[in-house]
């Protein structure tokens, strides 16, 4: 009887135990699922951490590489800048040397130009002196000779002729005047006498000092005399020659024209002095 009473209780206990075990098993399964889930999450986290670490290491490596490249680039650029600065200094030095050369060349050119201006001034002064001398010489093609000297003076003063050409032309003019002063010439040409009468005459010129003439008929004779009137040199014919003076003039002309043998002839002339009479 007692066994029968215990049996329901045991059944109840077993039933409750089964229920408890079922709950435990369910809880265990839930815990296992949670564990697996947590393990999966942990694994995912580990994977992400490993990936993050890998990315971090890659970033560090990349940063280090970039730093190395940056340093190398900075060093290269510094070297390039130093090289460019050296080239700039070299070019600046060459430029300064060229400027110095140009300055020296300009100074030399200015000096040459100044010397040439001074030379032109001196040449013009000499030409004017030559004009004065020509104006005081015998009236033998004097206008033409004077025009050449004045023309050269104008061209020198206006700068239309170089100093070399001016010097050459002046030398030519001086040589012509020297030749004019050295030569003895005789020409047959119309001549205006002191009284204004025009006659055909043979004119003898001796250098730039003396001129005598005889007309074609041998009736009129004269010698050119130099005088100072109103501070100006003038020339006029002295036609009042005596027989001896006329014979000397006629003989000199005949000797020059080879009508008489060469000989010394005493002419009725004297040295003309600038500023005085004859």
UniProtKB/TrEMBL annotation:
<feature type="coiled-coil region">
    <location>
        <begin position="21"/>
        <end position="55"/>
    </location>
</feature>
<keyword id="KW-0732">Signal</keyword>
<protein>
    <recommendedName>
        <fullName>DUF3450 domain-containing protein</fullName>
    </recommendedName>
</protein>
<feature type="coiled-coil region">
    <location>
        <begin position="81"/>
        <end position="115"/>
    </location>
</feature>
<feature type="signal peptide">
    <location>
        <begin position="1"/>
        <end position="22"/>
    </location>
</feature>
<keyword id="KW-0175">Coiled coil</keyword>
<dbReference type="Pfam" id="PF11932">
    <property type="entry name" value="DUF3450"/>
</dbReference>
<dbReference type="InterPro" id="IPR016866">
    <property type="entry name" value="UCP028069"/>
</dbReference>
């Amino acid at each position: 009887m007692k066994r029968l009473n215990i049996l329901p209780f045991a059944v109840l206990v077993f039933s409750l135990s089964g229920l408890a075990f079922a709950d435990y098993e369910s809880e265990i399964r839930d815990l296992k699922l949670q564990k697996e889930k947590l393990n999966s999450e942990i694994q995912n986290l580990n994977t992400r951490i490993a990936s993050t670490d890998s990315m971090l290491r890659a970033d560090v490596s990349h940063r280090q590489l970039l730093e190395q490249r940056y340093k190398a680039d900075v060093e290269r650029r510094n070297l390039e800048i130093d090289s460019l600065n050296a080239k700039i200094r070299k070019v600046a030095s060459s430029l300064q040397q060229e400027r110095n050369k140009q300055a020296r060349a300009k100074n030399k050119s200015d000096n040459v130009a100044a010397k040439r201006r001074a030379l032109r001034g001196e040449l013009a002064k000499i030409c004017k002196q030559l004009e004065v001398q020509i104006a005081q010489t015998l009236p033998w093609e004097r206008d033409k000779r004077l025009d050449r000297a004045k023309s050269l003076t104008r061209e020198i003063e206006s700068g239309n002729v170089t100093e070399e050409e001016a010097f050459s032309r002046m030398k030519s003019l001086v040589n012509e005047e020297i030749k004019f002063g050295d030569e003895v010439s005789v020409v047959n040409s119309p001549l205006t006498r002191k009284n204004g009468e025009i006659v055909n005459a043979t004119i003898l010129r001796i250098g730039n000092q003396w001129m005598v003439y005889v007309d074609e008929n041998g009736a009129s004779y004269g010698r050119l005399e130099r005088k100072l009137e109103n501070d100006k040199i003038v020339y006029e014919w002295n036609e009042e020659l005596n027989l001896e003076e006329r014979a000397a003039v006629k003989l000199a002309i005949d000797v020059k024209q080879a009508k008489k043998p060469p000989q010394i002839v005493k002419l009725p002339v004297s040295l003309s002095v600038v500023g005085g009479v004859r």
